[in-house]
Specification:
The chain has helices at residues 9-20, 39-51, 95-98, 140-145, 147-150; strands at 2-6, 28-32, 66-70, 75-80, 102-106, 120-126, 132-137. With 154 residues, it is of the alpha/beta class. Belongs to the TsaE family.
């Protein structure tokens, strides 16, 4: 596990951009944390980085449940599963097809048995200074080989 201090929204955006440079088709990023923890902020930065467009509008998929983006590396599906009770409805949302590209999932605990074991899991939690701590689990070798993470973080 790797912990990264995110004192502000700009640090969260830098983490998203660093992660975007590592992603490839078949990858899954699971974003965990309480309401207001910064999951959507991180997802927006990651998606903008993947698509190479800092001004791209990235609406929260809280009500649509999934938004799909065409990125140069692969199609990216951003799922927000807050309103789902469990994995039953995921197939109707195109989960299986989305897994061929890159998926970013907010509220991944609702994936149940569909949660990919090889995913990068990022848990965002408040710190004592009013910022956030990002706990990254998984992809140890990939994170270690990335210049952005190999020397102390994003």
């Amino acid at each position: 596990m790797r912990e990264i201090s995110l004192p502000d929204a700009q640090a969260t955006a830098r983490l998203g951009h660093a992660l975007a440079g590592m992603l490839r088709a078949g990858d899954c990023v699971l974003l965990e944390g309480d309401l207001g923890a910064g999951k959507t902020t991180l997802a927006r930065a990651l998606l903008r980085g993947l698509c190479g467009d800092e001004d791209m509008e990235v609406p929260s998929p809280s009500y649509t449940l999934v938004q799909v983006y065409d990125a140069p590396v692969a199609e990216v599906a951003h799922f927000d599963l807050w309103r789902l009770d469990g994995p039953e409805g995921l197939h109707e949302l195109g989960w299986d097809d989305a897994r061929e590209g890159i998926v970013v999932v907010e509220w991944p605990q609702r994936l149940g048995v569909l949660s990919p074991s090889d995913a990068l899991r990022i848990t965002l939690a408040p710190d004592a200074a009013g910022g956030r701590i990002a706990r990254l689990e998984g992809w140890d070798m990939r994170l270690a080989q990335s210049a952005a993470f190999g020397t102390g973080g994003a």
